[in-house]
Amino acid sequence: MQIYWTKINEVIEETPEVKTFLLNLPEGFTWEEGAHTHFALEGFNAGDQPNRSLIRHMSISTLPHEHSIGITTRIKEQCSEFKAILRQLDVGSDVAIFKTHSNVPLKREDKNVYLLSSGVGLATFRPLVLDYFKRGDNVGHMHSLNIDSSGSFLFPDTFASSPDKTFTSQFVDNRRDYYAEVQALAADKDGLFYVVGSDEFLLQNIEVLREQGIQPEQIMLDKHENQRAEFLSYDFSM
Protein backbone atom coordinates (compact mmCIF):
# COMPACT_ATOMS: atom_id res chain seq x y z
CA MET A 1 0.00 0.00 0.00
CA GLN A 2 1.40 3.37 -1.00
CA ILE A 3 0.86 6.25 1.41
CA TYR A 4 1.05 9.73 -0.13
CA TRP A 5 2.10 12.40 2.36
CA THR A 6 1.20 15.91 1.28
CA LYS A 7 0.40 19.35 2.66
CA ILE A 8 -2.71 21.47 2.93
CA ASN A 9 -2.40 24.39 0.53
CA GLU A 10 -5.73 26.11 1.22
CA VAL A 11 -8.69 25.89 3.60
CA ILE A 12 -12.03 27.11 2.25
CA GLU A 13 -14.98 27.77 4.53
CA GLU A 14 -17.85 26.63 2.32
CA THR A 15 -20.55 27.22 4.95
CA PRO A 16 -20.41 27.88 8.73
CA GLU A 17 -20.08 24.11 9.34
CA VAL A 18 -18.41 22.85 6.15
CA LYS A 19 -14.79 23.25 5.09
CA THR A 20 -12.84 22.15 2.05
CA PHE A 21 -9.18 21.28 2.60
CA LEU A 22 -7.20 21.58 -0.65
CA LEU A 23 -4.11 19.39 -0.69
CA ASN A 24 -0.99 19.59 -2.82
CA LEU A 25 -0.96 17.00 -5.59
CA PRO A 26 1.72 14.36 -4.87
CA GLU A 27 3.74 13.10 -7.82
CA GLY A 28 2.14 10.06 -9.39
CA PHE A 29 -1.19 10.45 -7.59
CA THR A 30 -4.30 10.42 -9.77
CA TRP A 31 -8.01 9.64 -9.44
CA GLU A 32 -11.29 9.77 -11.34
CA GLU A 33 -14.66 11.38 -10.67
CA GLY A 34 -16.58 9.89 -7.75
CA ALA A 35 -13.39 8.81 -5.98
CA HIS A 36 -12.96 8.35 -2.26
CA THR A 37 -9.74 8.05 -0.31
CA HIS A 38 -8.48 7.26 3.16
CA PHE A 39 -7.56 10.64 4.66
CA ALA A 40 -5.22 10.44 7.65
CA LEU A 41 -3.74 12.90 10.11
CA GLU A 42 -0.15 13.06 11.28
CA GLY A 43 0.68 10.27 13.75
CA PHE A 44 -1.85 7.78 12.41
CA ASN A 45 0.92 5.25 11.64
CA ALA A 46 3.31 6.07 14.47
CA GLY A 47 2.67 2.83 16.39
CA ASP A 48 2.70 -0.85 15.58
CA GLN A 49 -0.92 -0.63 14.43
CA PRO A 50 -2.60 2.27 12.59
CA ASN A 51 -4.51 4.65 14.86
CA ARG A 52 -7.93 4.38 13.22
CA SER A 53 -9.24 7.39 15.15
CA LEU A 54 -6.93 9.51 12.97
CA ILE A 55 -8.20 8.05 9.67
CA ARG A 56 -11.44 8.78 7.81
CA HIS A 57 -12.94 7.57 4.55
CA MET A 58 -13.52 10.76 2.50
CA SER A 59 -14.75 11.66 -0.96
CA ILE A 60 -12.52 13.76 -3.20
CA SER A 61 -14.47 16.84 -4.27
CA THR A 62 -12.13 17.98 -7.07
CA LEU A 63 -10.87 16.66 -10.41
CA PRO A 64 -7.19 16.26 -11.36
CA HIS A 65 -7.27 19.24 -13.76
CA GLU A 66 -7.91 21.49 -10.72
CA HIS A 67 -4.39 20.58 -9.49
CA SER A 68 -5.49 20.08 -5.87
CA ILE A 69 -7.06 17.22 -3.96
CA GLY A 70 -10.21 18.55 -2.32
CA ILE A 71 -11.53 17.05 0.92
CA THR A 72 -14.87 18.59 1.89
CA THR A 73 -16.36 17.76 5.28
CA ARG A 74 -18.81 18.99 7.87
CA ILE A 75 -17.29 19.91 11.25
CA LYS A 76 -19.87 20.58 13.94
CA GLU A 77 -19.13 22.27 17.27
CA GLN A 78 -19.49 18.92 19.02
CA CYS A 79 -17.42 16.52 16.94
CA SER A 80 -15.07 13.53 16.97
CA GLU A 81 -11.39 13.62 17.91
CA PHE A 82 -10.54 13.43 14.19
CA LYS A 83 -12.70 16.42 13.29
CA ALA A 84 -11.49 18.41 16.31
CA ILE A 85 -7.87 17.98 15.18
CA LEU A 86 -8.75 18.65 11.55
CA ARG A 87 -10.50 21.89 12.48
CA GLN A 88 -7.21 23.22 13.88
CA LEU A 89 -5.11 22.40 10.81
CA ASP A 90 -4.05 25.18 8.50
CA VAL A 91 -2.01 25.75 5.36
CA GLY A 92 1.25 23.78 5.51
CA SER A 93 -0.05 21.01 7.77
CA ASP A 94 0.92 17.46 6.79
CA VAL A 95 -1.76 14.88 5.99
CA ALA A 96 -1.76 11.49 4.25
CA ILE A 97 -3.96 9.88 1.62
CA PHE A 98 -4.05 6.23 0.53
CA LYS A 99 -6.33 3.49 -0.85
CA THR A 100 -8.04 5.73 -3.40
CA HIS A 101 -10.82 4.25 -5.51
CA SER A 102 -14.04 5.25 -7.30
CA ASN A 103 -17.25 3.29 -6.85
CA VAL A 104 -19.36 5.87 -8.67
CA PRO A 105 -17.69 7.02 -11.90
CA LEU A 106 -20.01 8.72 -14.38
CA LYS A 107 -21.65 6.10 -16.59
CA ARG A 108 -22.02 7.15 -20.22
CA GLU A 109 -24.85 4.94 -21.45
CA ASP A 110 -27.05 7.52 -23.22
CA LYS A 111 -29.33 7.68 -20.17
CA ASN A 112 -30.43 10.45 -17.84
CA VAL A 113 -28.45 10.65 -14.61
CA TYR A 114 -30.00 11.54 -11.24
CA LEU A 115 -27.78 12.51 -8.31
CA LEU A 116 -29.52 11.98 -4.96
CA SER A 117 -27.75 13.26 -1.86
CA SER A 118 -28.01 14.68 1.61
CA GLY A 119 -26.07 17.73 2.75
CA VAL A 120 -22.32 17.36 2.27
CA GLY A 121 -22.93 14.39 -0.02
CA LEU A 122 -22.68 16.96 -2.80
CA ALA A 123 -18.91 16.74 -2.36
CA THR A 124 -18.96 13.29 -3.97
CA PHE A 125 -21.09 14.52 -6.86
CA ARG A 126 -19.25 17.76 -7.65
CA PRO A 127 -16.60 15.96 -9.77
CA LEU A 128 -19.30 14.05 -11.69
CA VAL A 129 -21.05 17.31 -12.53
CA LEU A 130 -17.79 18.98 -13.60
CA ASP A 131 -16.89 15.96 -15.73
CA TYR A 132 -20.32 16.12 -17.35
CA PHE A 133 -19.92 19.85 -18.02
CA LYS A 134 -16.54 19.23 -19.59
CA ARG A 135 -17.76 16.34 -21.74
CA GLY A 136 -21.45 15.54 -22.01
CA ASP A 137 -20.99 12.64 -24.43
CA ASN A 138 -23.42 9.75 -24.01
CA VAL A 139 -25.21 11.28 -21.03
CA GLY A 140 -28.77 12.54 -21.39
CA HIS A 141 -29.97 15.06 -18.84
CA MET A 142 -28.32 15.35 -15.40
CA HIS A 143 -30.39 16.29 -12.36
CA SER A 144 -29.17 16.83 -8.79
CA LEU A 145 -31.58 16.53 -5.84
CA ASN A 146 -30.22 17.37 -2.40
CA ILE A 147 -31.89 17.57 1.00
CA ASP A 148 -30.41 20.25 3.24
CA SER A 149 -32.26 22.12 5.98
CA SER A 150 -29.33 24.42 6.81
CA GLY A 151 -30.12 26.94 4.08
CA SER A 152 -26.38 27.13 3.32
CA PHE A 153 -26.00 25.11 0.15
CA LEU A 154 -22.65 23.76 -0.98
CA PHE A 155 -20.90 24.66 -4.24
CA PRO A 156 -23.57 27.10 -5.52
CA ASP A 157 -21.54 27.88 -8.66
CA THR A 158 -21.54 24.20 -9.66
CA PHE A 159 -24.97 23.16 -8.44
CA ALA A 160 -26.97 25.76 -10.32
CA SER A 161 -29.41 24.82 -13.06
CA SER A 162 -27.99 25.38 -16.53
CA PRO A 163 -30.34 24.78 -19.48
CA ASP A 164 -27.41 25.17 -21.90
CA LYS A 165 -25.69 22.22 -20.24
CA THR A 166 -28.93 20.24 -19.74
CA PHE A 167 -28.31 20.24 -16.00
CA THR A 168 -30.84 20.97 -13.27
CA SER A 169 -30.23 21.34 -9.56
CA GLN A 170 -32.86 21.14 -6.84
CA PHE A 171 -32.69 21.59 -3.06
CA VAL A 172 -35.39 20.68 -0.55
CA ASP A 173 -35.35 21.20 3.21
CA ASN A 174 -37.42 18.25 4.46
CA ARG A 175 -37.66 14.49 3.94
CA ARG A 176 -41.30 14.43 2.88
CA ASP A 177 -40.66 16.73 -0.08
CA TYR A 178 -37.40 14.99 -0.85
CA TYR A 179 -38.90 11.51 -1.18
CA ALA A 180 -41.85 12.88 -3.15
CA GLU A 181 -39.31 14.25 -5.63
CA VAL A 182 -37.45 10.91 -5.72
CA GLN A 183 -40.71 9.19 -6.60
CA ALA A 184 -41.30 11.71 -9.39
CA LEU A 185 -37.79 11.25 -10.79
CA ALA A 186 -38.27 7.48 -10.77
CA ALA A 187 -40.89 7.93 -13.48
CA ASP A 188 -37.85 7.70 -15.77
CA LYS A 189 -37.65 3.91 -15.86
CA ASP A 190 -34.39 3.97 -17.83
CA GLY A 191 -32.55 6.50 -15.66
CA LEU A 192 -29.40 5.95 -13.62
CA PHE A 193 -29.75 6.89 -9.95
CA TYR A 194 -26.66 7.73 -7.89
CA VAL A 195 -27.19 7.89 -4.12
CA VAL A 196 -24.75 9.27 -1.52
CA GLY A 197 -25.36 9.63 2.20
CA SER A 198 -25.61 7.68 5.44
CA ASP A 199 -26.47 3.98 5.37
CA GLU A 200 -29.99 4.81 6.57
CA PHE A 201 -30.35 7.39 3.78
CA LEU A 202 -29.15 4.86 1.20
CA LEU A 203 -31.68 2.24 2.32
CA GLN A 204 -34.55 4.73 2.33
CA ASN A 205 -33.73 5.83 -1.21
CA ILE A 206 -33.32 2.25 -2.41
CA GLU A 207 -36.71 1.35 -0.95
CA VAL A 208 -38.45 4.25 -2.71
CA LEU A 209 -36.69 3.58 -6.03
CA ARG A 210 -37.38 -0.15 -5.95
CA GLU A 211 -41.06 0.50 -5.13
CA GLN A 212 -41.19 2.62 -8.29
CA GLY A 213 -39.77 -0.20 -10.42
CA ILE A 214 -36.16 0.96 -10.64
CA GLN A 215 -33.88 -2.07 -11.00
CA PRO A 216 -30.79 -2.68 -8.81
CA GLU A 217 -28.42 -2.26 -11.77
CA GLN A 218 -29.73 1.30 -12.20
CA ILE A 219 -28.79 2.31 -8.63
CA MET A 220 -25.20 3.44 -7.99
CA LEU A 221 -23.88 3.56 -4.42
CA ASP A 222 -20.53 4.74 -3.07
CA LYS A 223 -19.86 1.25 -1.72
CA HIS A 224 -17.60 -1.63 -2.69
CA GLU A 225 -19.40 -4.15 -4.86
CA ASN A 226 -20.04 -6.67 -2.06
CA GLN A 227 -21.48 -3.95 0.19
CA ARG A 228 -23.52 -2.57 -2.70
CA ALA A 229 -25.00 -6.01 -3.28
CA GLU A 230 -26.01 -6.24 0.39
CA PHE A 231 -27.79 -2.88 0.29
CA LEU A 232 -29.59 -3.63 -2.95
CA SER A 233 -30.75 -7.04 -1.74
CA TYR A 234 -32.09 -5.72 1.58
CA ASP A 235 -35.45 -7.21 2.57
CA PHE A 236 -37.72 -4.22 3.27
CA SER A 237 -40.59 -6.50 4.33
CA MET A 238 -38.88 -7.36 7.63
TrEMBL record:
It comes from the Bacteria. This is Ferredoxin--NADP+ reductase. The lineage of its organism: Bacteria, Bacillati, Bacillota, Bacilli, Bacillales.
